[in-house]
Specification:
Layout: H1 2-11, H2 17-28, E1 37-41, E2 44-47, H3 48-62, H4 68-87, H5 94-107, H6 112-121, H7 126-146, H8 155-165, E3 174-184, H9 191-207, H10 211-220, E4 224-226, E5 230-233, H11 239-247, E6 257-258, E7 262-273, H12 279-307, E8 310-312
Antiparallel strand pairs: 1-2, 1-8, 3-4, 3-5, 3-7, 6-7
Helix pairs in contact: 1-2, 3-4, 4-7, 5-7, 7-12, 8-12
Length: 316
């Protein structure tokens, strides 16, 4: 229980000292059954507290209430995955897990602290999610590494799958050479300020007829920037943006978009056909790989379960 009390205290360091002491005493005085061991997996315990926490996490992410047995099986699987990954020297450090945790938050437009607060508001410790991420990340790396050759997707299979339901726009691929540009707007700026900057962007957009002009203009403007060139293929960009790029004239700017940084646009400096994956082929390749990965991972985990020492206790 000492580790749990310490973790909880760390979440409330801004509270008064007396409140922290009260919280510590409350946690440490909980009955022992709150941490009762339900099952031992190769000598590693899964407790009732683990089950409670994982149940809350699954309910939050799936909006469904899982059965206790489903949660227990998932926790057992995680123990097996982490242990097997360690056998092949795949052992994520705390900083690795924190990085993955932060990346997940970023995809939700949250920083790590904000993600933690969302979880805590639902009674879920951040470590519960981090434990899940550690198991899945290590497992993915292990399966991909061990079975790399058998997971390869044949070009004929990709071509066959891609030609089935593909739309005309998805059957050819282009490489786009782009220069992102931005007119900075201070955070918290009034809507009128944002609108004024958007209008400025529209004026500049009408003026620009080439990437050289875009470079010259944005290098001379205050509170603006033009980024280094980037290359993207049709399969790398969302469908709506791809449609936009295919219709734009070379050297012109995309419509202004309000972002966290300010008003952003993209200069299309070049567009040429490429032999890289078309959107349809990329989607087909990813789908076929996912199917192969799932089949191999399921078979691998089944074998691990058969050879594992799984000892259930009385409280199951």
């Amino acid at each position: 229980m000492t580790m749990n009390a310490t973790s909880i205290l760390s979440l409330f360091t801004r509270l008064a000292a007396t409140a922290c002491v009260a919280l510590t005493l409350s946690v440490m005085s909980q009955p022992a059954r709150a941490q009762a061991v339900v099952v031992m997996v190769n000598g590693d315990p899964v407790t009732t507290f683990d089950i409670e926490q994982r149940s809350k996490l699954i309910a939050l992410t799936t909006h469904k209430t899982p059965s206790r047995q489903e949660v227990l099986q998932e926790l057992i699987d995680d123990k097996l995955k982490i242990k097997e990954a360690k056998k092949f020297s795949i052992d994520l450090s705390a900083s690795d897990v924190d990085e993955t945790y932060a990346a997940m938050g970023s995809r939700m437009r949250l920083n790590a602290d904000q993600l933690s607060k969302v979880l805590e508001a639902q009674g879920i410790r951040p470590e519960t999610l981090k434990s899940r991420l550690k198991a899945e990340t290590a497992w993915s790396a292990l399966v991909r590494g061990r079975f790399k050759q058998s997971l390869l997707v044949g070009e004929k299979d990709v071509q066959s799958a891609a030609s089935g339901d593909a739309q005309p726009a998805d059957t050819e691929s282009f490489e786009y050479r782009l220069r992102p540009v931005v007119l900075f707007v201070a955070r918290g700026a009034a809507p009128a300020v944002i609108e004024q900057r958007r209008k400025e962007a529209e004026v500049i957009r009408d003026r620009v007829q080439s990437c050289d002009e875009a470079i010259s203009i944005f290098q001379s403007l205050r509170e603006s920037a033009i980024r280094d060139p980037i290359a993207k293929t049709s399969a790398d960009v969302p469908a709506n943006f791809r449609e936009q790029l295919d219709k734009m004239q070379i050297g012109h700017l995309s419509p202004p978009e309000v972002t966290k940084q300010g008003i952003e646009m993209v200069a299309l400096c070049d567009r040429r056909k490429t032999t890289a994956d078309t959107p349809a082929k990329r989607e087909a390749r990813d789908k076929l790989f996912a199917q192969k990965f799932e089949t191999k991972a399921k078979s691998y985990l089944t074998d691990l379960r058969k050879s594992a020492m799984i000892e259930y206790r009385s409280d199951r």
